Amino acid sequence: MTERGAPRLVPHLAMARTALVTLLSHYRRHPGQLAMLLVGLWVASALWSGVQAINASARDSYARAEALLSPSLERRDGAPLSYADFTTLRRAGLAVSPLVEGTIELNDGQRLNVLGIEPLSLPAGGIGEDRSAGNDGEDGANPLGLLQPPGQTRLAPETLATLNASPGERLVGAGGERLPPLVIDAQLPPGTLMMDITRAADLLERGPRIDTLLLAAGSQTALPAAYRPTPAAQGLSPGQLTESFHLNLTAMGLLALVVGLLIVHAALGLALEQRLGLLRTLRALGVPGRTLVGLLAIELVLLGLAGTLPGILAGLWLASVLLPDVAASLEALFSASVGASLSLPWHFWAGSLAITLGGLATAGLGMLWRTARLDILALGHAQPSRADGRRRYRRQAGLAALTWLAALGLWLWPTPAGTPSLIAGFAMVALALAGSALGLSVLLGAVLEGLKRGLPGNSPRTALIRWALADLQLQLPRLQLAMMALLLALATNLGVAGMVGGFRLTFLDWLDQRLVADLYLRPPPAAYDSWRDWLETRPEIATLLERRETDTRLIRAEGERPVALQGISPDPALTASWPLLATLNADRAAAWQSLREGAALINEQLAIATGLAPGDMLTLASPTGPFTTQVAGIYPDYGNPRGEVTLTVERLSQRFAAKPGSMGLVLTPGLAAADEAALRQRLTRPLPEAGEAPAPSLIDQRSLHRQARQVFERTFAVTRALTGLTLGVAALALFTGLLAQARERRARLAPLWALGLGRTTLLGVTLAQLGGLALATALLALPLGVALNWALVAEINVAAFGWRLPLHVFPAAWVQALGLAVLVALLAAALPAWRLWRAPPRQLLEEFSAS
Amino acid sequence: MLEMRDIRKAYATPQGPLPVLDGVDLSLAAGASLALMGESGSGKSTLLHLAAGLDTADSGEITLDGQRLSTASEPARAALRRTRLGLVFQQFHLVPSLSVADNLTLQARLAGRETPDWSQELLTRLGLAEMADRYPEQLSGGQQQRLAIGRALAGRPALLLADEPTGNLDEASAETVLTLLLELVRDSGCALLMVTHSARVASRLERRLTLSHGRLLAEEAR
Hints:
The structure holds 2 protein chains of 2 kinds. By secondary structure, chain A is α+β, with helices and mostly antiparallel strands. Among the domains of chain A are: 1-70 and 236-383, no CATH class; 72-229, no CATH class; 519-707, no CATH class. Helix content of chain A is 59%, strand content 13%. Helices cover 34% and strands 28% of the residues of chain B.
């Protein structure tokens, strides 16, 4: 500040303060507008920050999980690692540490991941870093705590809460074994128990095998030739696997943010329009234009903070309500453990605030621009002229056409085969939605003009309808943003409901086709063969469908990629209903015969990602060297995030040393209920032939169906909640839009009242206008919803999850959407209409005089 | 106080430039009052807007209180309006969201020149003291214009510019408002430039000028 400038500052500040108070006084007289602004901001920031809180919490869990396991080594020959490898590498001077991992079942049926580590050799910088700091406090930081009897079972605070246990308590496994006492370790991901490797290997019946050798980060010692670092893509990290899921959530959050900001934009536009006279008066009284723009920017920031901060808090509440469903979905779909309580980094707060305030700034940019260009001499001419309106419509129509063309361009843009881009898919949908929203008022205006011109005769009723249509045309600029919000919310609801409904139908069909056995049995690995031999002798069982699984890598010229490998029994009981999307020469029987003879089937995800087709050859890494076979067919595999290759169970056992898995038991037709009950009973007890191995786990088809449905419903619970809330926001936009202009509406209706129309008639006209407008918007939302449904199932789903769904349409949902739109409009119009109906004649008279 | 020399102004129209002021010279001494008359479209309001710094002339020189308006920046013209001028419009242009008292002191506060005693005196003399907490919409037309006059004078401007201040009022209200306006102008010692159609109103001011087709006709002394 210069010496000359300082004395000038004080009067300028006083002027700015007075002008700001004057500008803000508008909201004291129009609290409805203020409420509309704050509610818009509140809702937009709540939905956006709610989704971001869910994403941030999940990513925090993934980061904790990923911090545990990288970097690591594997054998070049693909053989499992053992303690001998550990010893060899330590002797070669490499700071490696063994790790076993698996899943255990507790006596109450809960399943948890178990990590077994060797604390003394654990590389610094990984999971043991701050435990080696000599802290032997209650958080279990002393690494020796894991080794000294009775040992420790470390777990994240969220896991402790989920188990409803307390520190020091000892969990009991399904086989009755007692785990070491519980100790909290906040660094661990949720759903994971960590303990000494010896205890973990016992619990997991792992014997001398180890799963991974962790390598100290930055190790300079050369690796012996027989080993190599585990490729980064080997066993995709939870963060990578769930990326699409979170992107979908983000897209939904963004849509809610946009719909919320539409309310804000409408409110700001209204506030500016009503204050044009005030702004010009202030300019005439000597407030410089730049100062006014600056003051309006300050007003925006104040409003932004007042709306956004409570919005973020509401978002946190929303996230805490939705997170358990999201966590369950992620666990079921991707085996990714996510804590059920929120864990938010600092940048969540900054990001949520920045995005909402950024959105507000974008919404308010128009207001600031108009203020900066305010024609000071046009005092009192607050309303834009009819010609201005026509010009704006033409601009809007042009912009809508351009936006739609861009969406079509993205759709038609050639992408490399088999690699549809998720971002491009979302951009296409966003452009189509934006183009439709921009074109909405142009279309509605044209429809109203057409209806007005097409009205025959000059009866009193026709005159009233003609007036109602003309009045609606006048209202359209004010209502267009609310209608846009309604269009977007309805189309999204229809699109998402169509996608979810279609997915449900397809998924349940597919489940019926794949789950053909009546019972599914998973014996302990050591007792697997004994159980199979015993079951093969049982007369109650018509067919035994074995299934094993393992992981390997698909070897291609352009590099290797991890794939899941499963072995199945190609018995007609299974193959008759197993769906195949593509086979060589469209011959299903030949494809199954090829599988029996050594060929492979691949899932749709892998086919889309790699471009492999029936008849192509594929090569897999196996412990005995590369294994090459032909692709016999492609099958749908909904819900699986990974590429998968299917072989016969015999081939898998021989070439890939796959661990024993589960068995599907198809019961003999006509089996008596008592015999079935006796068999079920028998299957829940240990088999004497299997020595001391515990009892297998048994689940029947109905339970599997139920579990799958539950997973399905929970997966889409969040989607449904967000689309429902978005529709609620649109209703709010309409309501606040109507409320904000209720006074002016009355001023326009008052002359009609003075001309002899009863208030009941005016009320009916008002409701019919709004209901009709909403109905027309909903009718336009129908094709947009179907287009969105198509884009979701045919483009976005393929890009996000790797599988394509057939397009299903649900006419009942359309009727519901039409009804909902009219209902929303009538509800929104109810309060202003009620006020009109209740307005005393004196008030109408005053408003008539004023008008 | 106000000097305007060879002022020319034309508006762009689809048919080409439309001259509104064509070499106007005008001067107004401190404390003097001048009525500017003329037909509709003769350029009266344009001249007033130029004097207020709301618009700029195509050529010519305008000096207000020794400061050249013609070359002043927009913020400088705004500062001059805020601190040295009072404006009264035919349409009142009150702030609907501020009370009567707040409307009256608005410009004085913006200029940092509020004098509570003077504001109170204005309220009383304008007959608005009992209505200080009301809002503009609750006032009659005459009351609203009185309030607009009060707002223009509350900051003790050097020059009051009034554009048809009684044009929207009935005869009785117009007379009351005009009498009050002239009284207050006289007491506050500011100069007055008033645009009016009415010869009767113009006759109450010290000097009268008539604009016709963008040029000033001979001055009539009272």
